[in-house]
Amino acid sequence: xxxxxxxxxxxxxxxxxxxxxxxxxxxxxxxxxxxxxxxxxxxxxxxxxxxxxxxxxxxxxxxxxxxxxxxxxxxxxxxxxxxxxxxxxx
Length: 90
What we know:
Blueprint: E1 2-7, H1 13-28, E2 33-38, H2 42-45, E3 51-54, H3 59-62, E4 68-71, H4 78-89
Helix pairs in contact: 1-4
């Protein structure tokens, strides 16, 4: 399974979301490759992804994708990440 975290530059917010998503996946006993990317490269990086994690402001810019696009409100809220990842993966 591949999960891509997206933000504008692919460094700050997506990096934070990547690390926190990996922690939640480990806690849930799930295995996935988590990749942080910028909005400009989402088409290429997420072409084979099952899940894209991002904030509401980037959803429209992601465009057409086969991945489930999951909006995360608080990148530091492990409970929110856990609930939404389980729903997307489940």
